[in-house]
Design goal:
This protein folds into two domains: about 1-85, no CATH class; about 95-220, no CATH class. The chain has seven helices and eight strands; from the N terminus they run E-E-E-E-H-E-E-E-E-H-H-H-H-H-H. The protein has helices at about 40-45, 100-115, 115-135, 140-155, 160-170, 180-220, 225-230; strands spanning about 1-5, 10-15, 15-20, 25-35, 50-55, 60-70, 75-80, 85.
């Protein structure tokens, strides 16, 4: 699939482009509002061009760039792979995290959004180290088990798994350099590990407490507020 800018400046897309909006969070179509001119591309011969869109859900502006594939006398062919200038932020329920873990984890995800892959890797290691220090003696083993679960469930290949294991748990050595492919796996891995360790644990414990409370109330072990009022009236 490709995008074409015709000689009369008509902008043709083989199929619409949809992305997650950083403003409203919806996965919505990107509607072109300002496109490059045919003559400008022919005269300048750039490798990439910029395109302005609006989000179909919230109408906020979106910006992207596309590689120029070919230029001829009738049209310009652009790659259909639109690279977003402004990405949607990574979402996570940070309120469940201890303050120190939250600080490093937020910064890690900010590095990922900025395409700072090696800074992202370093902050992921800091996040894991801080979480292990927060949770105590068996935490390193627990986090390593979470890592292995992600590798198995996500079907992560052995070479990638070894690199990411060194990123997260190689406390005595430098953080390995990673690229976009490794970072894409690592961001899902660290989010899942943090969720399982903190969010799932907190939600499950809260649900268990609530279930026990209602079970004890039903069996008469707890005096409900309504019954207490009736008995003391």
């Amino acid at each position: 699939m490709a995008i074409y800018v015709k000689k009369d400046n008509t902008f043709e897309q083989a199929e619409p482009v949809s992305r997650e909006c950083p403003h409203c969070g919806a996965h919505a179509q990107l509607i072109p509002t300002a496109t490059p001119s045919f003559e400008a591309i022919r005269s300048a011969g750039p490798r990439q061009v910029g395109i302005a869109f609006r989000c179909a859900a919230c109408n906020e502006p979106r910006f992207g760039r596309a590689s120029v594939r070919s230029i001829d006398t009738a049209s310009v062919e652009l790659s259909s792979n639109i690279i977003e200038v402004e990405r949607a932020q990574q979402r996570f329920p940070y309120s469940y995290l201890p303050p120190a873990v939250e600080r490093f984890f937020r910064e890690a995800l900010q590095c990922y959004n900025a395409d700072c892959h090696n800074a992202f890797a370093s902050m992921c290691r800091r996040t894991v180290q801080t979480a292990i220090a927060d949770l105590g003696s068996n935490a390193r083993l627990e986090w390593f088990e979470l890592y292995k679960d992600v590798v198995n469930i996500g079907d992560v290949d052995e070479a990638t798994a070894q690199v990411l294991e060194s990123v997260l748990f190689g406390a005595d050595g430098p953080v390995p350099e990673i690229g976009a492919d490794h970072a894409a796996v690592l961001v899902e891995m660290i989010k899942d590990m943090a969720y399982q360790c903190y969010v799932r644990t907190a939600k499950l414990r809260a649900a268990m407490r609530m279930r026990r409370y209602f079970a004890e109330e039903a069996s008469g072990k707890i005096t409900s507020l309504e019954r207490h009022r009736a008995e003391t009236a």
